[in-house]
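== Item description ==
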Amino acid sequence: MHKNTVRRFCSYLLILTSLALGWPSPAVAKEEALKMGVFPRRNFTTTIKMFTPLANHLSRKLGRKVLLETEKDFQSFWNKVQSGYYDIVHYNQYHYIRTRKKPGYRVIAKNEEFGLSTIAGSIVIRTDSHIKQIKDLFGKKIVFGGSKKAMQSYIIATYLLRRGGLKAGDYTETFAINPPNAVLATYFHQAAAAGVGDKVILMSVVSRNVNTKKLAYLARGQQLAHLPWAVSTRLPRKQRNRIRTVLTTLKKTREGKKILRAARLTNIVTAKDKEYDPHRRIIKIVTGEQY
């Protein structure tokens, strides 16, 4: 018998045996697994610990394995997002806006943290720094959380600096691996100010390690739609809607509330694309990019 024929026969026999015994076919299991990416707003270990209960819950509710993934830095995460690697993704507003058309993602939900489904970019300083206004940062070092693709920590923070009278080159830009580290760097006098989301100084990773009473907002932007959850347009519409339902009904059950607490969220609520139009306007002002 020809070798290829033998291989096909063996594969067919394995599938029949698997079905008869109730085993999942390896090919089917691989096809059905969904990849869920969560951006590295916090460090790798913390992110995996926080969102593993949610990934497991989605697996049970969808009847499909959901594989949780993150990266150690923003650029590595962005590379995967840009390639359309993830089926379900939690990222920042700039990431979503850039990837809506290509590779194709649709927003389905957004975070609620500390009881609010909005978040603002901000400039944080030490209260003893003698910096009273944006122009006092002229010639100083400012540390931004993440990268130039960070919506609150860089794009909106830069918008606040421009609005306060500073232009590119008036200060030194440097970057921390994530927003909490940017705040910590400012607290420990490694920079004059930090560009971060306004909820960062409330995070336990910051409040447990420093006296946040010694930190203050020098500038704070408008409250805008919170960090989005999106799904790939590769998924059927019915599947996308199901994922939205699972995420946005977590608060209705005891198990769901426990999952939200693990993720340090007070809720996940429905979101629509038009809620991110204000972000699009700020992106155009700061970067010149139009979406």
In short: The longest helix spans residues 3-21. The longest strand covers residues 105-112. Confidence is low (pLDDT under 50) at residues 1-7, 9-30.
